[in-house]
Design goal:
By secondary structure, the protein is α/β, with parallel strands linked by helices. It is built from seven helices and 16 strands.
């Protein structure tokens, strides 16, 4: 994976670069100390993984991820303050590492990132978009798109809800969304995608799908209403 280190502390960057020596699959493309430099590097290079410090001057790591939006690399947050962990995971990042970074903790995060990176190409539609393949543990399964009720981001997994059985695949929700036919599915929350044909009832900010309650955030209400054929 092509990687970018972003940390305003030179010693912290040096520690990370040394840790790269224990994982051959990582290729360090560049390092920088602020978000402005990071934007330039991201614009001119294919980056698969960001190792990103939270506390940086002017634009923090969390603010940077929000600016990058959905079209972003995989993210591993790094910080000396554990208080940022919940905010980091709300952004559906791969992992959060508290400083000082140990080799075993670094490897744990990289293993998770590699698994997600690998599975981004396994969660894919068929040529006719009638079904998808997912990696469920060590098994690759075929699932009919029409059988999916909705999908939910759960940390670094995506849970797929169906009538008879649910599955979890190691991936980001954005990666999954990019591979679903959007005439059939709609994002209704930063952590939820629904099969429009499965919606039974809409009550305010809540959808009812197969007796399950699914929240719709204000940011997605307008686009969902446009997709619905309401008489």
């Amino acid at each position: 994976m092509n990687c970018l280190i972003i940390d305003d502390n030179a010693i912290a960057r040096s520690v990370l670069k040394n840790l790269f020596k224990i994982e051959d699959s990582l290729k360090l493309i560049a390092e920088c100390e602020n978000a402005a430099d990071a934007f330039k590097i991201l614009a001119n290079n294919k980056i698969d993984l960001l190792l990103l410090d939270v506390e940086m001057p002017r634009i923090t790591g969390i603010e940077l991820v929000k600016v990058l939006g959905d079209k972003r690399p995989l993210i591993v947050f790094i910080s000396s303050k554990r208080d940022y962990a919940s905010d980091a995971y709300d952004l559906n990042v791969v992992d959060f590492i508290a400083k000082p970074i140990t080799p075993d903790r670094f490897l744990k995060a990289i293993i998770k990132a590699k698994e997600i990176y690998k599975n981004q190409n396994l969660f894919m539609p068929s040529k006719k978009d009638e079904f998808i393949f997912i990696r469920d543990s060590n098994i690759i399964r075929r699932i009919k798109l029409a059988d999916i009720n909705y999908l939910e981001a759960k940390g670094d997994y995506v849970k797929i809800y169906m009538d008879k059985k649910n599955y979890a695949t190691h991936s980001s929700l954005k990666s999954v969304e990019d591979k679903l036919p959007m005439d059939m599915f709609s994002r209704v929350h930063r952590s939820l995608i629904v099969n429009i044909s499965k919606i039974d009832t809409i009550e305010g900010g809540t959808l009812i799908i197969q007796q399950h309650f699914v929240s719709v955030s204000d940011a997605y209400k307008s686009s969902l209403n446009k997709r619905m054929q309401i008489l």
